[in-house]
C-alpha cells in the first residue's frame, strides 16, 4: 500500500496558519458550544482552532515528534506507577496531560454555568479543575467557585474523602495533596453541578485546585473516564449506565474535532468486541487481551509472556487516550519492527529519530499492521502507524518499545493508533468495541 500524505504535514501547515491568525473572528462557527447536543460532545485536539492550548508558534517536524515522545515517556511512567502499587486513584492525570492535554471537551460547571475545557483521560477516575484564588494556576482557565450558588466543599467525614490520595482536613473541609514531576498541587474535594452537552449531573464531586507549584502547572481541568467511584461513570450510573464511546480525530481534519458519546443510546450496532479484563491492583485501567500482532499477512513470533495478562504484576495491554504513540514491551516491539523492516525491504537504509528506531528517507511501500485481540482483529491503515516529515523526506514507524525505566510488562494502545475508530466502552457487559469511522468533523 502506497503512503498517503502525512497527517503531520497538514498539522504543521495548520499550525503555521494558526500562528499568523489569532483573531477570535477566525474561529470556525462549529466551535460554538451549541454543537454539543444530546449526550454527544465534540472532542477537540489541542491543535484545533477551537483550542486555547494550541502552540503560539509552530515547531519543526522533528521538534514536534521529539516533544510528543518526551510527554509519552512521562505518561508511561505514570501508567506504570498505577499498576505497581496499591493506592487510591490520583485526582491529577499524568504530567503529559497536565502540561499539554491531547484531547479536550467542553463542560459547564456551577450555577450559573461556566464553560471550561477538560482533558479526556480514560486511565484516571476523578475530575480536577483549577479554581479561583489558586496560587500558581493559569488565571485564564480557572473556575470561579465563588460565583456559583451550587458550589460546596465536602466535609472530612464524607465517604468521598477516603477515595482521594493523601486526604487531610483543614477545618472541616476535605483536602488532599499531590506531588508529580517538579510540581505539587493542593486541592479541596468539592461538589457542584456538571453539565455535558444537554445532560445535567447534579452535585458532581471533583478536586478544586487551590495551589500549584513547580514547572508542571496544569493549564486546564481533567475529566476522568475510568471505572472507579469518583469517575464520571461512577457518578452518573443512572444517566449513562457506565457506557461511553469516543472517536478521536485525525490530524488531517481541518477542525481537528471528533466526538465523545455518553450512554448506551446511539452507540454503533455493527461493531466488533473484545472482553474487558479487570486488574484488582488498578481497577480503573481498561485492560484487554491482546493475543498476537500481524504485519502484512504474517503473525509475528512474540513470546506469550510479553502479551499475557497478569493481575498480580499488572502485566498486559491497556487502551489509553492520554498516550500518543503505542508502546509494546521490548520482545513484542522487536518482533513487529523486524517484520516491518523485512517487508519494506532489506536494501532500504533505516535511520532513527528520538525514540523511533525505524525511519526511512526514501519513499516506502508499507504493510498493514493488525492487532489481534480475543474476539476481534483491528487492522490499521498506514495513517495510524506512520508519521512523515513536512517535506515527506522522512517516514517513521510510529511505535516504540516500552522504555527501560518503566514497568516492562505493560503494553499501551495509544491515541494515534485509535484515531478514526469508534472505541466503545461497555462496562455493564465488560467489553470494548472497535469500529472504523471517519471521526473528524
Automatic annotation (TrEMBL):
PROSITE patterns reported for this sequence: PEPTIDASE_A1
Gene3D superfamilies the record matches: Acid Proteases
Active site: 121, 320
GO terms, molecular function: aspartic-type endopeptidase activity
Signal keyword on record: yes
Start and end residues of each Peptidase A1 domain: 103-435
Cross-referenced SUPFAM superfamilies: Acid proteases
Keywords annotated in UniProt: Aspartyl protease, Disulfide bond, Glycoprotein, Hydrolase, Protease, Signal
InterPro entries: Aspartic_peptidase_A1 (IPR001461), PEPTIDASE_A1 (IPR033121), Peptidase_aspartic_dom_sf (IPR021109), TAXi_C (IPR032799), TAXi_N (IPR032861)
Signal peptide: 1-23
GO BP term, example: proteolysis
Family recorded in the similarity comment: Belongs to the peptidase A1 family.
Designated name of the protein: Aspartic proteinase nepenthesin-1
Organism: Cucumis sativus
Amino acid at each position: 500500500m502506497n503512503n498517503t500524505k502525512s497527517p503531520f504535514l497538514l498539522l504543521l501547515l495548520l499550525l503555521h496558519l494558526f500562528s499568523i491568525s489569532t483573531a477570535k473572528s477566525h474561529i470556525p462557527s462549529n466551535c460554538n458550544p451549541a454543537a454539543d447536543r444530546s449526550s454527544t460532545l465534540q472532542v477537540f485536539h489541542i491543535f484545533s482552532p477551537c483550542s486555547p492550548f494550541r502552540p503560539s508558534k509552530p515547531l519543526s517536524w522533528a521538534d514536534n515528534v521529539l516533544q510528543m515522545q518526551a510527554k509519552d515517556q512521562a505518561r508511561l511512567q505514570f501508567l506504570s506507577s498505577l499498576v505497581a502499587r496499591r493506592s487510591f486513584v490520583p485526582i491529577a492525570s499524568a504530567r503529559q496531560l497536565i502540561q499539554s492535554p491531547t484531547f479536550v471537551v467542553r463542560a459547564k460547571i456551577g450555577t450559573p454555568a461556566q464553560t471550561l475545557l477538560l482533558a479526556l483521560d480514560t486511565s484516571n477516575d476523578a475530575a480536577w479543575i483549577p479554581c479561583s484564588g489558586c496560587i500558581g494556576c493559569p488565571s485564564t482557565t480557572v473556575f470561579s467557585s465563588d460565583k456559583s450558588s451550587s458550589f460546596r466543599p465536602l466535609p472530612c467525614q464524607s465517604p468521598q474523602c477516603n477515595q482521594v490520595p493523601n486526604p487531610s482536613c483543614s477545618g472541616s473541609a476535605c483536602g488532599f495533596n499531590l506531588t508529580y514531576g517538579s510540581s505539587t498541587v493542593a486541592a479541596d474535594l468539592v461538589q457542584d453541578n456538571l453539565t455535558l452537552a444537554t445532560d445535567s449531573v447534579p452535585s458532581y464531586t471533583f478536586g478544586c485546585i487551590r495551589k500549584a507549584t513547580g514547572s508542571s502547572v496544569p493549564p486546564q481541568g481533567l475529566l476522568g473516564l475510568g471505572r472507579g467511584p469518583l469517575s464520571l461513570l461512577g457518578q452518573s450510573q443512572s444517566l449513562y449506565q457506565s457506557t461511553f464511546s469516543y472517536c478521536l480525530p485525525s490530524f488531517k481534519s481541518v477542525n481537528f474535532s471528533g466526538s465523545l458519546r455518553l450512554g448506551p443510546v446511539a452507540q454503533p450496532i455493527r461493531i466488533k468486541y473484545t472482553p474487558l479484563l479487570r486488574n484488582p491492583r488498578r481497577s480503573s485501567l481498561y485492560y484487554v487481551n491482546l493475543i498476537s500482532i500481524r504485519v502484512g499477512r504474517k503473525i509475528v513470533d512474540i513470546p506469550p509472556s510479553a502479551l499475557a495478562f497478569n493481575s498480580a504484576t499488572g502485566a498486559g495491554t491497556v487502551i489509553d487516550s492520554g498516550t500518543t504513540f503505542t508502546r509494546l514491551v521490548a520482545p513484542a516491539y522487536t518482533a513487529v519492527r523486524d517484520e516491518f523492516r523485512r517487508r519494506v525491504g532489506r536494501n532500504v537504509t533505516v535511520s532513527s529519530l528520538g525514540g523511533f528506531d525505524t525511519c526511512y528517507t526514501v519513499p516506502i511501500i508499507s504493510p498493514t499492521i493488525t492487532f489481534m485481540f480475543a474476539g476481534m482483529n483491528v487492522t490499521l491503515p498506514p495513517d495510524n502507524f506512520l508519521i512523515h516529515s513536512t517535506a515527506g523526506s522522512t517516514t517513521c514507524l510510529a511505535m516504540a518499545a516500552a522504555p527501560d525505566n518503566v514497568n516492562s510488562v505493560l503494553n499501551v494502545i495509544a491515541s494515534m493508533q485509535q484515531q478514526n475508530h469508534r472505541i466503545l466502552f461497555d462496562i455493564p457487559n465488560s467489553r470494548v468495541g472497535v469500529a472504523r469511522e471517519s471521526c473528524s468533523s
